[in-house]
Design a protein that fits this description.
Immunoglobulin-like; 5-stranded mixed beta sheet; 13 helices; 678 residues; alpha+beta; 4 domains
Length: 678
């Protein structure tokens, strides 16, 4: 007859197990393991010895408030000769004696979350179970160590902003392993409305990364629930902070947690995406932030953006808009609800734009479905398809209310970007979302998507051709010229009107004040001739109009008097902030105090006041932001220099994220990669 083991005490061997499961960056003071992978517990017996084949132990693993075998949130099992990695199992892996090394394995599809493991009558062990992208049986399995190091274990990264022809890298501290962050991520799951309505079913759903990604997409914004961030794009940031203030996710997640799950104010798309990335990586889902330049927001699901301009070429604001850029995340997983062709990266968007199944969330939708125009696939494929593929039709509204079509070359979904694996370089992933513009495959995709054929945009080498050229050195604080270039590609003389204007613009397409304007009523061009018309942009005029995005919209409009055709060229330019230089003083070693010497030159023709430098970095600044405020003003062209001290807590490659803020020059970002020795 089998004899139940009489357990006196146990050792969870947290340091060994957490290191083996790659969760030791969360600390080794409690057991955190990944599903489908063995972990070992040392059991010390009160009486008797373990006898192979004679000793027994009833084990129960439970998660959630109402554990149930029907929901998969409860599993009962005993000792086996060997552990089975396809299900909950346990085996003794030590010789007979009064100390038993118990090897336990969770099912690779077990729900993630907090668990209790009951060992016979003797006691309960608590641990946290996460997704396991190193386990072939897990739906998030990724077969590449370098990619796993980037998309799961890396605590910092680069998010691309700026414009499609001038992508600007912004450093970000994801900080998913900083103290307490995993607990905040689990609390986010517990606060989602589905969990509050039916906790048993919700906890069961946590076996599935599709379900978890969709919950996170809804919970990172607070539009339908007690989510993390409140979005704001207009009218100042009273009662909160400018989204550009954030340097990382740690402060945001901690603020939400300590403020009784009240939304943190404020976020915009890159902040929503970055926080979603931190949570996904914390839970074990491979994740990356992507930026889509010239991103369409299609509100009526017809895959067409209709925009109107007035007779001066100025955009008339409407709901349908092309964002200068938009950020979302991609999560890596299989799609058993679809065919295996649609496994891999899935687009998920936590920025609240349109409702999906009655809630502000979006995705996960397979990149392959977007590329192939499979718009019937779950979830929200038509919306993401439009973001990267919508046609843009421009109409000119005349004073009498009539409209006429305008020839233009705006193409959405340009230079879709993410940080490269293992380096800070930009990786262009446009090819994962769409076939090359104008290719046969692209045309076929549009037909499949029931999409009307694109207008033949700007017949090359026919009629007048219009482009906007810019100089290479467009820095905030400088005066500079931009150029409208009109070319006559016909065999006859041409007379036309050229309107060339500029205005500030937010990254999401909202227009601001006029920065410079020119209207030439009689531009004459002989056959083959080119006319280059400059427009001077003066700091004294654009400085008060500019938003923190540093973006100016240039629009040139040509009216051909002989054919009455209207041609429009639009280009957004981004003004570069000054470079922040970071020098590390001292030998970078673990637990050794270092100084960052940070320098910046004031590029503006005016004095800076209220100057403040801030730094943060995963395993560099103790999960905190360290700030140094200057007591004096900084004159035009002057250098400002500070030293900020910090103590690294971990070895390896780390990213120190730096921010400079002042009354006139706001939220300038910089960073320095540091290799910390042991």
């Amino acid at each position: 007859m089998a004899q139940a083991l009489d357990i006196d005490r146990w050792n969870l061997e947290c340091e060994f197990n957490n290191t083996d499961h790659r969760t030791d960056l969360n600390g080794v003071d409690r057991l955190i393991v990944r599903r489908g992978q063995l972990f070992t517990i040392s059991l010390y017996l009160r009486s008797g010895n373990y006898q192979p084949g004679l000793s027994s132990l009833d084990i129960v693993a439970e998660t959630g408030p109402n554990p149930s075998e029907r929901y998969g949130t409860r599993a009962s099992f005993g000792l086996s000769a060997n552990t089975d990695t396809s299900c909950w199992s346990a085996a003794v892996v030590s010789p007979p004696g009064d100390m038993v090394a118990l090897s336990v394995c969770s099912a690779p599809d077990a729900p993630i979350g907090r668990y209790t493991l009951t060992l016979g009558q003797s006691g309960k062990i608590e641990f946290i179970l996460l997704f396991n992208p190193w386990c072939p049986g897990d739906a998030v399995y990724m077969d590449n160590e370098e990619s796993l190091a980037e998309y799961v274990l890396s605590q910092d990264g680069i998010i691309f902003r700026g414009s499609y022809n001038h992508p600007i890298p912004t450093p970000w501290n994801f900080g998913q392993f900083e103290s307490g962050i995993l607990d905040v991520c689990l609390r986010i799951l517990d606060m989602n409305p589905k969990c509050l309505d039916d906790p048993g079913q919700d906890c069961s759903g946590r076996r599935n990364p599709i379900y978890v990604s969709r919950v996170l997409s809804a919970m990172v914004n607070c539009n339908d629930d007690r989510g993390v961030l409140l979005g704001k794009w207009t009218d100042g940031y009273e009662g909160g902070v400018n989204p550009l203030f954030w340097r990382g996710s740690v402060e945001i997640l901690r603020n939400w947690d300590t403020q009784a799950c009240q939304p943190v104010r404020y976020g915009q798309c890159w902040v929503f995406a970055a926080v979603a990335c931190s949570i996904s990586r914390a839970l074990g889902i491979p994740c990356r932030v992507v930026t889509n330049y010239l991103s369409a927001h299609d509100t009526n699901c017809n895959l067409v953006i209709e925009r109107y301009i007035n007779e001066n070429g100025e955009l008339i604001q409407s709901k349908e808009i092309v964002w200068n850029y938009h950020c979302w995340v991609e999560n890596w997983m299989t799609r058993p609800d679809l065919t295996s062709d649609f496994n891999g990266w899935q687009a998920t968007d936590p920025t609240p734009q349109e409702k999906s199944e009655g809630v502000y969330c979006c995705g996960p939708t397979p990149l392959r479905a977007i590329k192939e125009g499979e718009l019937t696939f779950k979830y929200d494929t038509p919306f993401v398809f439009a973001e990267v593929n919508a046609d843009v039709i421009t109409l000119k509204k005349k004073k009498d209310g009539s409209t006429s079509s305008v020839i233009t070359t705006t193409m959405v979904g340009q230079n879709i970007s993410t940080k490269s694996v293992g380096s800070d370089a930009r990786e262009d992933i446009t090819h994962l979302y769409k076939y090359p513009e104008g290719s046969d495959e692209e045309r076929e995709t549009f037909k499949k998507a029931n999409h009307q054929n694109k207008l033949l945009q700007q017949q090359q080498n026919q009629g007048l051709h219009l482009t906007i050229k810019v100089s290479s050195d467009m820095r905030k604080g400088c005066d500079f010229d931009v150029f409208a270039v009109v070319t006559n590609n016909t065999q006859s003389n041409k007379k036309c009107r050229l309107v060339f204007g500029s205005c500030s613009v937010s990254y999401n397409g909202l227009l601001g004040g006029n920065c410079g304007f020119k209207d030439l009523l009689n531009v004459e061009l002989s056959p083959g001739a080119e006319r280059r018309v400059p427009l001077r942009l003066n700091y004294s005029k654009y400085s008060s109009k500019l938003t923190e995005d540093n973006l100016i919209r240039l629009a040139a409009l040509v009216l051909d008097y002989t054919t009455t055709e209207t041609i429009l060229a639009v280009r957004n330019i981004v003004l570069d902030n000054p470079e922040i230089k970071v020098k590390i003083l001292g030998e970078p070693k673990m637990n050794r105090k270092l100084a960052a010497e940070i320098t910046l030159k004031n590029p503006l023709p005016e004095t800076l006041d209220n100057c403040c430098f801030s730094i943060e970095g995963a395993n560099l600044t103790g999960g905190c932001v360290i700030s140094e405020r200057l007591g004096s003003s900084v004159g035009p062209g002057e250098d400002v220099k500070v030293k900020i001290y910090f103590t690294p807590s971990r070895s390896g490659l780390r990213k120190l994220v730096v921010d400079f803020d002042s009354n006139k020059l706001c939220h300038v970002k910089g960073y320095r990669n540091i290799i910390i020795g042991k």
